[in-house]
Structure formats: structure tokens, C-alpha cells
Amino acid sequence: MTVAGNEPAPERDLYVLIRDFEQFVHHASRLPLTGKVILDEDDVYAFLDHLRRLVPEEIDRARRLLADRDRLLEQARAEAESMVRQTESYVERMARESEITRKAEEQARRMLAQAEARAREVRASANAYAADLLDRLEGILRKALQAVVEGRQELQATLRAAGRPAAGEAGQEAAPAVDEGKPDGEPGGGADWDEPAGD
Questions:
Q1: Coiled-coil segments, which residues (predicted)?
Q2: Cα gap 182→154, rounded to integer Å
């Protein structure tokens, strides 16, 4: 599977890109009688470049979520203040009528309690919503960053195994080989690219 020249769509999910890389490795040419595959260096770097572009997009998304949370909290505060002002105005108006002063105070207390309860409910809902989204986003970012680190380690291990210099050194055209037979957790191990569990 070749990705050179194919730019990912802006909405492309990190999980999709990681899964594509797994398929890319799975369908790569294999060295006979070995557990290794041959990967095109340009294609591997193209995948890593795509990951680098997606991670800042996820960070921007986190900032937008924080802004949305602040907006919801401000809206809740404004609603609560408006309800309190209406209640106070109602109390003042009713208090001027001596024959119903007591009833006005009781009604005002009920309205004020309702306004405060509503404000607390809106704030709690907004905080819970923002916290849930941020927790999910944190998980996505951690997996994406881990994928970048593992991809770089695997590529460097492949280049060293093939006697090729790593990125930043003298460039060569030969395609590196990746050892898919190593245990999980070691550079080059195929299990490093398992698809992350869904949230």
C-alpha cells in the first residue's frame, strides 16, 4: 500500500491513519525465509508526516472544547444572574403591596432557589460534558504520540538493520526492511501497530 502523493483528508481520524499503516506493513513485500518486510522509506516518512499534521489539529480541537466549556459556563452564569435580577425585581414590586408582602417573599424565595438550582445544574452539566470530551481527546492524543514514537523507533531499527543511516544523515535510495517477528514492545515488532481500542 503506497501513500506517496496521497494527502489525507482534513477530517481523517488518527485511528484510520494508524490502521492504514498497519495495512501498509501487512501488504509490503517480504524477504524470503525471514520474518522481515521491505518498506519504502519515503512512504514511511509520509505516514509520519501525516501524523505530525494531525496531532496539532487534535490540539486545536482541545482548545475549541475548552472555549466551548467557557462559553457554556458564561451562559449559565448570565442565565442565573438574569433569573436572580428578575426575582429581586419581583420581590421589590410585590413588597410595595403590603397586603401580599408575605406571599411575595415566599414566592421570591422559591424563585431564587429555582434560579440557583438551575445555575448549578447547567454548570455541572457543562463541566461534565467538557471533562468527558477532554478525557477522550487526551486518550486520542496519547495514542497518536505513542504511534509517532513507535513509528520512528521502528524505522530507525529498520535502517540500522539494513545498514542504512537514520533520518538527518546521508540519504540513500535503498528500501529498509522491518522485522515483524520480534516480540511486542521491541523496535520492529508488528504488535506495536495494533489498532487502538475504541473509546
A1: 59-132
A2: 11
Domain containing 115 equals 14-193
* Cβ-defined contacts of 167-171 (< 8 Å, 24+): 167/45
61 vs 13: which has the higher pLDDT: 61
In-domain check, residue 77: yes
Three cell numbers at 162? 539494513
Three cell numbers at 166? 537514520
179 strand-pairing partners:
36
Q: Cα–Cα distance between 33 and 28 in angstroms, integer?
A: 15
pLDDT at 98: 66
What's the pLDDT at 20? 84
Q: What is the largest CA-CA distance in the chain?
A: 100
What global pTM score does this model have? 0.32
- Contact (CB, 8 A) for 41 and 175: yes
Q: What is the pLDDT of residue 3?
A: 44
Q: Give a yes or no: residue 52 inside a domain.
A: yes
The total number of structural domains that make up the chain: 1
